Amino acid sequence: MEIRKFFSGIFSSGAQSLTTGNIPLLLTRFAIPYMAANLLQALYGAADMIIVGQFTDAAGLSAVSIGSQFIFMINSIVIGLSLGGTIMIGRSFGAGRTEEIKETIGTMLTLFAILSVVITLSLLFFIDPIARLLGTPPEAFDQTRDYLFINIAGIATMFAYNALASIFRGFGDSASPLMFVAVACVLNVIGDLALVGFFGWGAAGAAFATVCAQGFSALLAVLYARRADYHFDFRLRSMRIKPERLKSLLYIGLPMAIQFSLTGISFIFIMATVSKMGGIVAAAAIGITSKINGFTMLPPASFSAAISAMVAQNIGANKPKRARSTMYAGLTISLVFGLFTFGLLFLCPECVIRIFTPDTELITATALYLKSFSADFILVCFVFCLNGFFNGCGHTTFTMANNIFSAFAVRVPATWILSGISGASLFSVGFAAPLASLQGIIFSLLYLKSGRWKKSR
Known about the structure:
The protein is mainly alpha-helical. The chain has helices spanning 2-9, 23-55, 58-95, 98-124, 127-133, 141-153, 155-170, 175-198, 203-227, 243-296, 298-316, 320-347, 349-353, 360-373, 376-392, 396-420, 426-429, 432-450. The chain has 18 helices and no strands. The protein is 82% helix and 0% strand. The protein starts with a helix and ends in a 7-residue tail after the last helix.
């Protein structure tokens, strides 16, 4: 009976309570659509790399690799604030406070609209300096500039999709975002094949296809949300900022936005450092690893988000023991995926890398980096699930501080030191990521043992 209920409810949309019932069952039912949505997002992100890699040269591949690192940093700000919205909506939904939900949604959507305009206008005038700051090789500079310009011009679509997805997930609905990202994935792949493969637009074509796909997906999400029961009418008259809700949203979401964006900056530093060490091939190898890493991170990242939403509802319902059990269940399931991906990419990395490029030199370089980097696939299961738990409890300031410390006190310095050693290779540089994750786990376990997470935020 439990198995039948599980499969029948996996892709059901609509609001649902996560404060009662079997914890592993509910957590998995919430995480699977979230994981599927993230998988599709990773696929249409990887489609840029794969299609550009097949139809252009290393310069085009390097342009997408470098440009996507910067766009990821911007997207991290959106994701962090969106998670803050998910947690706030989840708490209010768990406590049955409808008016708070309306005010939170209105505040978040208005804030995102303002931020998208400000960020777009601010960055469009600095495309060339940004490309130089990213350490772009001369051969890839023009394509990187075009890729950045188009993505930055379409930032509003990124904000819109993430805001709507966070609203759905706050209500315990992880299936609806899956439907809309599936549409975006299909459109992006079609657009890539047409613009990159047929018209030969290169990296610029990949960027244009992505922006258009995101925009159409966001439009469908708005139309759907207006007809569903999410306690908000999605009309302009309801779009207003409530100071109290804004304060709470920034208190919870801003630390995550800062954490994610600074982590993205740390990877930009790593990309620039490795580019200087090994040139365009090394930069492309890091980019390919980043895309592969996007897939391997899906299970822990999805369970982290599911843990945050479920913990938020249970904290709102005053059930801290159930909240902690949620974290342990998510960690156990995530580790199964982590061990599998580690084994695959440590023992046979070339099998996966060939999907992205037929270039023998690039395959060898990426495999060398993955050999040492792959230990991180296990460690991040602990990092993500612990972070998801603390975020759901409202202790986002701790996760921000811990992750920033990991990035800038461990990962970046370790990359710089390891790349500067005589005879250094991508294999030695790859150890920087697992070292940073190990430090983050130690600090998180100490914080968990201290019991400070029980204090309301």
